[in-house]
Write the structure tokens for this entry.
Amino acid sequence: MSDKGIFIEKQYLGREWIPITIRLVLALFCFAAYFFTDERERNGDLLAIVGFVIIIISIIMGFLLHFSTTVINKSILLDGLWSTRRVKIDLNSIVKVEKGTYSRYLFNNPVYNLHTKGTIRFYAAGNDAIHLTDRDGLVYIIGSQHANELLRAIKGEMKPV
């Protein structure tokens, strides 16, 4: 058995463009409000501090790993942040694999191992996802920024040897 995965993807919390834009607009609002406050107001300095804190948090979130996806030894390993459990999906129990969109909405929250209505979702960023259906009818939706490569790796591992 090999320790090196066929496909490895790491998804980070702070690298999606919509939340980055929202945080930068909030920081710009704080700086603009600081600029237009009178020097007599002591609370004006607080706006500059909040603007810098928002920017620093955005930088830190850009390096904060949400989860990694690894295709290895006829299974998919999904490993998340600190206290999350590692999820292993056995490809021998998968009956259908297809590429699709993660959601029809523009804004999607990052999720890890979210169970809703017969689906289990994993998502950090991007529009594409891989939909896996197992023998029991449970659907796994794995969001990916490299969905074509993930699909190719999954189908390559599912082929009988």
Q: What stands out?
A: The helical segments are 17-36, 44-61, 147-158.
